[in-house]
Amino acid sequence: GKARKLKDLMLKSDNRVCADCSAPDPKWASSNIGVFLCLKCGDVHRALGQDISNVLSLTLDDWSDSDIDSMIEVGGNSYANSIYEAFLPKDHPKPKPDSPMEYRTKFIRAKYETQDFLKPSLRISSKAGLESTNSLNSVDNSFSSTSRKHAPEDTREFVGQLNVTVVKGSGLAVRDMLTSDPYVVLSLGEQKAQTTVKASDLNPVWNEVLNLSVPRNYGPLKLEVYDHDTFSADDIMGEAEIDLKPMITAAMAFGDPSRHADMQIGRWFMTRDNCLLSDSIVNISSGKVKQEVYLKLQNVESGEMELELEWARLD
After folding, report:
1. What is the pTM of this model?
2. Please, which pLDDT band fits residue 120 given cuts at 50, 70 and 90?
């Protein structure tokens, strides 16, 4: 079963390229960091030593249960890069598949050895590779492994408040004769919240704030758009899922946001496996943790949504 889970992880689009240089079809992985690597980057990782990166072949090596557990715990390239590259400067480009080994080595050492692109307080001095990775995954132990898509929800204990501003939709699908009467439903576990109906509007502007409590074991935030019908069942106009892990993990790492100046603290990367239109940045702004999200609605012929998320931890 664990081998099957590892194979499923390998098949995700963001894991079908190297985490460090984006070379296609990686054949290696760093089990403790939780990333998939090409041969060239794997060689650099191997030179870092096992205390920093434990490199294994995806096809030749025998993987222990703990190696597989570590990879699955991280979730792959996008999750790892959202931590290790959270503060990657715009003028510091990542290597490309054909980049010289000198630049590739410099970048990888900066990323994992000196952790230049990581939040300073998260930088690790431990020599135990697996412990290092686990300390990143469990920035706060109570949040470890909490955003798996199928994680069971514990509605008896809430750890945060999520305020979602449903800003607007654009190019929504037609479900009546020439238009639609759209409204948005947000779901988090058993909780649901709904906007008002916008009559005859394919480009509706809501700017409505919906509030949801976040349980300790949270899953993705589900968004659905419906067309309101008076005399029949409402028609679906598309859906999307929002991964909350990048925002909540970054927020927990920084603690009280009111003590920090405005800054970027995390990122949810756009991949072919999610509904993002562009990378979604997590910021501290005016003493609050915020994230703007631009979504392409799924399972529908057209439609995009703009949301603003704001997180507040419950004390």
Report:
1. 0.61
2. low
